[in-house]
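FAQ: What does the model actually see?

It sees only this:
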Amino acid sequence: MATEDASCAVAHGAAPTPAETRTLVAVFASPVADLLLRYGRDLGYRTVLVEPERARVPDAEAATVLTHFPDDLDGDTDIVATDHHRVELGPLLAAALKLPARWIGVLGNPRHPGPHVTALTDLGVSAADIARVHRPIGLNIGSRTPPEIAIATLAGLIADRNGKPGGFTF
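And it is asked to produce this:
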């Protein structure tokens, strides 16, 4: 009988899923943030929603909700800003850049300039730090709906974390 590799054993339920210490932080309550956090929890992330205006959060069952970044974020943290139109974008990204987060990104149409660049520049953030903010984010699957955007974003984070290009190149 052939032996099953570790990944197959986990996929078939024959071995426990390895414990994860990853944290996914969605910045700003939005339909995409809700799905990112819901799907992220299923993927083993500890999920946190950072929303400066608590009244914007109708339901937070998939995440811890805070008005600021938690103190315990580390190098296993991925941060995704889900609304690039909010006036708080610059200050929150500037705060995120001071954290030891593994990855920071902003959702947005790649055909339009990223408003985060001007917002961060106006706050005196260095060009090198601004370059750490990913945009566009996720795998290019032509996503248009909140569920598709959330799946593409999470797939891109998984690919990046695993040092893979994503897509159908193996």
